[in-house]
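User: We ran a pulldown and think these components assemble together. Before we commit to crystallization trials, I'd like a predicted model of the whole complex to look at. Sequences follow.
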Amino acid sequence: MMTDITQLLIEKDNGIAVVTINKEQKMNALNRKLVEELNHVFTELKQDKEVVGVILTGKGQKAFAAGADISEFTGLDESQAYNMSKEGHDTFNLIENFPKPVIAAVNGFALGGGCELAMACHFRYASENAKFGQPEVNLGIVPGYGGTQRLIALVGRGRAAELMMTGNMIDAQEAYRIGLVNKVTDIENLLEASKKTINTIAAKAPLAVTGVIECVNAFSDRTLDGMERERNVFAGCASTEDFKEGATAFMEKRKANFKGA
Ligand code: COA
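Assistant: Here's a predicted model for the assembly, 261 residues in total across the polymer chains.
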């Protein structure tokens, strides 16, 4: 199915794809079409061999994404709500399972679905003005894009329960303190800091990096035995050329030249 991309900007810089939610006037709120666009764009980027990693951010200096688009909530019946949540899960799982690094560069409010989107990325960097929260209880719902599960995995059950039950917002420093974000920078340096880390990762053995993503995600998947997944990924890496190259380069005291094979 063709999806015309009207709410996302995609720029590529030396193999790094920067995907920007481009609805600044509406605080980059995530309508259902936008979630579909994200699905389409990440599917395409996955197949793009030039891409070494993705940075997801929001346009402007106010919002990463201030949640699902609340104007789409009125008149939503039970089965439509279920499907909306399912569509969000499919897209956010696609991002979480993306085989190359995906960093959320949180440049302002990450509320509700916006916080959930940031949590679906492999990790998060935030600007000092960023604010996080799951305010769904103010609207009479619960997080529906994976937030109830991912927030627990990131900050623990007690903190997650408090954030979701109160709907309170926290600032970037508090998000850093509880492990929701990995780094806080000033807003001017947010993209550069994210790019720098993608470049660090891009210099490693690509199949091993994909393996790390798979093993990390296995931790939260109750249908999988994480240790068994680790054994399989570890064994799979052992048969790659990059593994031979990495080990040989270390022994020869030189830098490894990885090929992604
Ligand atoms: N859905 C739809 N529209 C949204 C939105 C959302 N989640 N968040 C912001 N907007 C819109 C506002 O309605 C406003 O539109 P308008 O200019 O046509 O009136 C515009 O974005 C600017 O937002 P505004 O509220 O005027 O900005 P602010 O700086 O005063 O406040 C927030 C910023 C983020 C605190 C506030 O917009 C907010 O609380 N948003 C909703 C957050 C939320 O509950 N998200 C969870 C959804 S499940």
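The chain has a mean pLDDT of 97. That may be worth checking against your pulldown data before setting up trials.

User: Thanks, that helps.
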